[in-house]
Amino acid sequence: METLNRQEKKDVQTGKSRFVKRTCSLCPECLDKLDAVLREKEGKVVIAKTCPKHGGFEDVYWSDYEMFKKFERYGRLGKGVSNPKTETVEGCPLDCGLCPNHKSHTVLAIIDVTNACNLQCSICFAYAGKIGYLYEPDLETIENIMDSLRSSLPVPPPALQLSGGEPTVRQDLIEIVKIAKKKGFRHVEINTNGVRLAEEQDGVDHIRELQNAGVDTFYLSFDGVTAKSFIGRAPSHLGAEAKRKYAQWLLEMKLRFIENCRKAGHRSVVLVPVIVKGMNDQQLGEIINFAVQNVDVVRCVNFQPVSFAGRTEEWEVRQGRITIPEALQNIELQTGGVIEANDFYPIPCTYPISEFLNAYKLKRHVEFTCHPHCGAATYLFVEDGGVIPITKLGDVDKFFTDLTLAAGELRGGQRSKARLRIGTSALRNIKPKILKEVLPAITSGNYESLKPFHYKTLMIGLMHFMDAYNFDLERVERCTIHYGFPGGKIVPFCTMNTLHRQRLEKTFAVPLPKKRRSEQRD
What we know:
- By secondary structure, this protein is of the alpha/beta class.
- The protein has 18 helices and 19 strands.
């Protein structure tokens, strides 16, 4: 156990901790690649590593060892990409991408269309005013990035997120959306702070224009239902009272944006709260309740436990770190047990759906083969203002087991037997309340068939992106959320912000223009 010090080895030998697995990680100081060990300690899973230059580091990887083991059972190893864009030279995570070592194909593609923004959030990792250069690829470059992403085999990514910076500061955003649709992205979403689209009538009109161009979803940063939750986004140079007023204004912008979507007839907003311990981790239940009250517009809450990209002190990480199990326990407590931690499943639990569709349709479909500890999700059936977790309306495990068995029968040429199995399993394991929405969504493999299900439910998801402290190479190799870059590079999310962002952006960036420089300071 070369990565453990003498006391740690003693703890393992005396039963105070237990070995979980070996992996590779990074030094939070120099970002060198290090051997690392995961071990159970006091009911938690911690990651430990030692850098010869900067000493030892230990961080909480998952705060609940039993849940860690439960989620691990759902892990599925993907088949990778058949046309990688780079060769294996220095080894993962330095050869991104995607290199031949990557084990999952792209499910959600991301293109940063600018690093400029109309806000100055102190916690942002992609902010032009802070880093002093402008990364804003032109339309031709963006089109080439889309071509590179869509050329990925065996399954071109069906979904694209336009991100930044703040995409709505671009005057040609509508044209970018239209190009994405022409290239075959079935689902296009815009990652936004909502401010530009919260303007009075102009905001409503712009939302309609974007929707008509092909925008399916707005991915809205939304840290809570009180102004206090947004204090962390206030520019760092402001005084305490100015930060309070700024936070109140920002909350009002979020609420006005949601109302503008309602006026524009747009029915798909994802709320994206970054969870920081001590800042907004006591509001998770209230955020879900807010989403339920606005379910005519809000389709999902996607909680993101904070990732400490950039240079962060170890004490700051310990103070703000929250992991998926802690967040799930908070949700259970704050919803009075209406939503339980056990209602959530890891993302790759859905693999049997892809396995069945691959066999039934005789072609490859998107496969959610990310690492089982990357995220968790459930669906809430919303009716008369109340919610029922989908796990209370069916036996998820039994139905997914039958999907896997049916896939085997299909591969063996027993189509009638497979169809009978799925029909019987659906009647036994899915309650009538949602049966007519669930079955077509699973068996058709058609994007449009998902809409009735999504408009009757509210998805609650959690995705914990990594930083240098909790970096696990196994998770990177199985990442399914990838950035596209000029020149054809495709980079996993967690290596993008930890290792590659500045180098790749600077290659294609220009100095920040004077006008933009003053806008970023205001």
